[in-house]
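From the methods appendix. Each design record in this collection lists the tokenized structure first, followed by the designed amino acid sequence. Records were kept in a plain field format so they could be parsed without special tools. The example shown here is representative of the layout used throughout.

RECORD:
FOLD TOKENS (570 positions):
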């Protein structure tokens, strides 16, 4: 009887061994394979986030290299990427400042993890989270988060708590693994979505001008997610232990529909209570950050340039006493009027030494938040206030309304020689379109640049330290495709460049001829188009179009009442 039972016991033991082997394989081999092979390199969104972060980390490390001064670092999604100007804060307050905002869909959990990774003792974290960060489950792995961290940031996985780590390792859908075999392509030169990653300031601010898209304000729930509230409390405790200061500024957001307003107000009130209970100081109010929809580009969180200037100037005033800076400068108050897409900050309109109110010119009868009417400008001038404008759209609207204006400093044009001389260490891109022949007579310039500018054989060129890296010949419309290698000390990936041109007499290009990382740089039309790239930070530092040897720059204008109006006042 015993001998008859043994084969069955052997089979049972063998089966158990196989089951144990399978279980061990699933527990050990499966997560190892996931870590080794799960990637989403075809995702343009993940590539865009990655390219943003490597540049922002470079900007932060560069400031760390220059001295031990504590840094002010903004943290959050694209509301802060589009709505906060770290470069302006640094120039006006003298505090090293970097904009680390990227994509709101990464979620509160990831943004807090990134904060803990990048900030040091005595730094200040300026939190600017979208409303969704407070009412959505922060531990839901969105497609954006999943594609980004599995492809580019395994450090997020290793830094997660054990339960969360197991979820990230074992709960990936099967289709994610199948897609690894179905699609091995990587997001290439055009793989950055509708936003660029090379048009950043040296401080990580977004400087691109994407196409405007109509959008609808979204309703929100009014309850906070308990996990989000708990994360804020945990962050507050951690920051005190690490000697890091936390501050919160409300995200800029478009005014919502009247029927949605009560719910948003209740949500914001609960957010304020949660922040106060976590001892996180709040610098402003939701009402100060609600702007008309026309202030935004394509979502309710993406401000245009003039909206960013208005938001940041207010933020600077709130930061002064907290960062131990001198009070706002005193003197004769002034008014700076903006309108349209292009409202760059320049040395002329920095106004670091006098009080200036920054406003957007509106055609409405009543001025919205951050706006001013034509009658409001007239009243300011009658009271003796200095009024300035710094872009063509505002100047044209004021002229149509009967105001006079005259240059108030700065230059209205720059020569190609001066433009190149101001960028001795940058990579230069030059391309000639249409019938333009650049006028460049500097004899001390590098021979390769002189050859490009004088000759008719080369229409597009890429130069470094005066030496040609690549050039393309004319004769027919051409396209120079080049992967630009960068020197960044943070592992900057190469930037795909597409430089188009045409021979003299060719029809001007309808789109800008220079495209970097999938983003058009500069404007279109005839002329000698130029762009410069900082090889350490991987960002565009300048773009200009030279016609008749000069590139026009709109100067800051001082606005006055028309002559008849001045006589009437007198």
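DESIGN:
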């Amino acid at each position: 009887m015993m001998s008859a039972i043994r084969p069955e016991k052997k089979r049972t033991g063998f089966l158990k061994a196989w089951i144990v082997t399978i279980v061990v394989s699933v527990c050990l081999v499966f997560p190892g394979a996931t870590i080794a092979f799960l990637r989403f390199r075809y995702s343009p969104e993940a590539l865009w986030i990655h390219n943003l972060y490597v540049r922002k980390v470079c900007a932060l490390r560069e400031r760390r290299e220059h001295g031990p001064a504590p840094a002010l670092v903004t943290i959050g999604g694209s509301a802060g990427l589009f709505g906060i100007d770290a470069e302006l804060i640094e120039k006006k307050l003298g505090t090293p400042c970097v904009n680390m905002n990227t994509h709101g869909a990464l979620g509160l959990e990831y943004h807090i993890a990134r904060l803990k990774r990048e900030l040091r003792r005595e730094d200040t974290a300026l939190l600017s989270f979208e409303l969704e960060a407070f009412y959505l489950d922060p531990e839901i792995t969105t497609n954006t988060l999943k594609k980004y961290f599995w492809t580019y940031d395994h450090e997020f996985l290793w830094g997660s708590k054990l339960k969360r780590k197991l979820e990230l390792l074992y709960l990936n859908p099967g289709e994610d693994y199948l897609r690894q075999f179905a699609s091995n392509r990587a997001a290439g030169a055009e793989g950055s979505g509708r936003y660029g990653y090379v048009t950043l300031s040296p401080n990580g601010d977004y400087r691109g001008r994407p196409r405007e898209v109509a959008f609808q304000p979204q309703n929100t729930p009014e309850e906070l997610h308990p996990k989000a509230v708990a994360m804020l409390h945990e962050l507050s405790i951690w920051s005190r232990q690490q000697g890091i200061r936390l501050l919160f500024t409300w995200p800029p957001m478009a005014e919502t529909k009247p029927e949605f307003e009560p719910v948003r107000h209740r949500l914001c009130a609960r957010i304020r209570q949660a922040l106060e209970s976590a001892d996180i100081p709040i610098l402003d109010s939701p009402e100060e950050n609600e702007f008309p929809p026309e202030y935004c580009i394509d979502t309710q969180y993406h401000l245009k340039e003039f909206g960013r200037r208005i938001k940041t100037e207010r933020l600077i005033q709130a930061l002064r006493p907290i960062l131990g800076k001198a009070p706002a400068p005193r003197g004769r108050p002034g008014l700076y009027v903006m309108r349209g897409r292009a409202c760059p900050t320049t040395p002329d309109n920095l106004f670091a030494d006098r009080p200036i109110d920054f406003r957007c010119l509106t055609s409405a009868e009543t001025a919205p938040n951050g706006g001013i009417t034509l009658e409001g400008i007239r009243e300011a001038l009658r009271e003796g206030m200095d009024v300035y404008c710094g872009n063509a759209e505002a100047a044209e609207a004021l002229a149509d309304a009967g105001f006079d204006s005259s240059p108030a400093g700065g230059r209205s044009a720059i020569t190609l020689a001066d433009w190149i001389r101001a960028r001795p260490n940058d990579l230069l891109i030059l391309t000639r379109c249409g019938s333009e022949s650049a006028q460049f007579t500097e004899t001390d310039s590098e021979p390769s640049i002189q050859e490009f500018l004088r000759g008719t054989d080369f229409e597009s060129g890429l130069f470094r330290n005066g030496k040609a890296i690549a050039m393309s010949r004319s004769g027919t419309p051409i396209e120079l495709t080049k992967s630009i290698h960068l020197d960044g000390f943070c592992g900057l990936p190469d930037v795909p460049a597409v430089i188009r041109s045409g021979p003299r007499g060719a029809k001007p290009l309808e789109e800008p001829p220079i495209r970097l990382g999938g983003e058009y740089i500069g404007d279109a039309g005839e002329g000698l188009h130029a762009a410069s790239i900082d090889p350490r930070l991987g960002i565009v530092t300048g773009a200009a179009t030279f016609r008749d040897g000069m590139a026009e720059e709109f100067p800051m204008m001082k606005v006055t009442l028309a002559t008849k109006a001045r006589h009437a006042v007198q």
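APPENDIX NOTE: The CA atoms of residues 142 and 356 lie 43 Å apart.
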